[in-house]
Structure formats: structure tokens, C-alpha cells
Design brief:
mainly alpha
Amino acid sequence: MNVLSPAELAGTAIFALILAIIAYRVIRGMPTMTGDISAFRKRTLVWTQVALVLTVLQLNFKAGDWRFAIILGLIVLFTGSVWYAARHYDRLRPVDPESADSESTSK
């Protein structure tokens, strides 16, 4: 097994920090998104699946070298967290704003 050098660990930590900041900004901006958030949710699910498949392939075919698999794993965590937040906000929104208004006036 290859041991990561201090420079590689620092680079990985910086990359993880950048992804965390981007994810935080995207997730915090989701409640104010205009348009269809379910399309955004579907795209992030596809990218999560692609990154997960690449991570598994990397781990299977490149035994002993963790560098690229760590980066792919961070991307899986990033896209997965954004997808999960989009799923959460999509479930909180009413299906159709016009039907939600008619339901509230009929009560």
C-alpha cells in the first residue's frame, strides 16, 4: 500500500474543504431556487451514481493506490449530499402551487 505524503494529504484536505464550501452554498441556496428542483435532484443523482461507479472501479482495478479513489470518494460525498438536500427540499415543496392555494381556500 502506498502511503500518502504530507503534500498529498494537504491537497486532499484543501480539495475536501473546497467541496464542502461549494456544497454548503448550493444547499443553502436551494430553498430560494426558482424552477423545478426535481430536475436538479435527478441530475445530481446521476452524477452521484457515476462517481460511485468510478470509485468502485478504481478500488477494484488499482489495488494499493488510494490517491484517485480518495478524490472520487470525496466527489461521491459531495454529489450525494447535494442530491439528498435537493430530495429533502423537493419533498417539502407542494406538488403544484395552484392546487396548494385551492386546498387552503377550501378549508
